[in-house]
Amino acid sequence: MFQSTRILAAVVAASFVSIGPAQAAGDAPAERQAVMKQNGAAVRALAQMVKGQTPFDAAAAQLGFRTMNTAALGFGYMFPQGSETGSKTRAAPSIWSDRAGFDAAVAKYIADTSATISDLDSLKSAFGAAASNCGSCHKAYRTK
Ligand code: HEC
User: Fold this and answer.
1) What average pLDDT is seen over the chain?
2) Which among 98, 106, 101, 91 is positioned nearest to 141, based on CA atoms?
3) pLDDT given at position 90
4) CA separation for the pair 65, 49 (Å, rounded)
5) What residue ranges line ligand 1, CB within 6 angstroms?
6) CA–CA distance, 100 with 117 (Å, rounded to integer)
7) What is the distance in A from the centroid of ligand 1 to the CA of 112?
8) Ligand 1 pocket mutation pick from 36, 48, 112 by most atoms within 8 angstroms of CB
C-alpha cells in the first residue's frame, strides 16, 4: 500500500514536470498546428470520396471522421494562457478575449464530427456539416 502510494506520487510528480505550464505554453502552437495538419489530411481524403474521385469505403470514411473528432476533442486544451505567440502561430487574439465563443466553436466542431457514416449519402451530408466549421472558425479565430 505504502509502496504503491509512493509510486503514484512519483508518477504524478513526473507528469507535472513534463506538462508544466511553461512547457505547455511553449509547445502548444506547434502541437495544435500538427493536429490541424492531420485534420486537413483527413478532410482531403474525405473530400475525394465525396466527389467520387475515390470509391466510397465506409471504414475509411468513418476513420476520417474519427480523426477529425479526435482533433476536435483535444483542440480546446491546446490554447493555454501564454501560448498567444510562438511557432509562427496564427491563433487570433480573439481566442483569449472571447473564450466562450471559441469554446462554443470547438463544441460545435466536436458535435459535427461525431457522425456515424453508413453510406455515401450519409457521408455527403455529414461531411458538408463538418467542413463548414473549418471556414467559420478560421474566420473568427485565425489570423490572415
Ligand atoms: C474551433 C476552431 C477551428 C476549427 C473548427 C478548425 N480550425 Fe483549423 N485552425 C484553427 C486555428 C486557431 C488555427 C491556427 C493555429 C495556430 O497557428 O496556432 C488553425 C490552423 C489550421 C491549419 C494550419 C496548420 C499549420 O500548419 O499552421 C490548417 C491546415 C487547418 N487549420 C485546417 C482545418 C480544417 C481542414 C478544418 C475543418 C475540418 C479546421 N481547420 C477546423 C481553428 C480551427
Assistant:
1) 85
2) 91
3) 94
4) 13
5) 29, 32-33, 36-37, 39-40, 43, 68, 75, 89-91, 105-106, 109, 131, 133-134, 137-138, 141-142
6) 30
7) 15
8) 36
What span, in angstroms and rounded, lies between the C-alpha atoms of 128 and 39?
15
d(Cα 4, Cα 51) in Å, to the nearest integer?
55
Q: How confident is the model at residue 7 (pLDDT cuts 50, 70, 90)?
A: very low
Distance from the CA of 6 to the center of ligand 1, in angstroms? 41
By most ligand atoms within 8 Å of CB, the mutation choice from 31, 133, 138, 139 for ligand 1 is 138
Q: Which residues contact 127 (CB under 8 A, 6 or more apart)?
A: 46, 47, 50
Ligand 1: residue whose CA is nearest its atom 39 = 134
Q: What is the mean pLDDT of residues 40-68?
A: 96
Using alpha carbons, select from 118, 94, 90, 119 the residue that is nearest to residue 104. Answer: 94
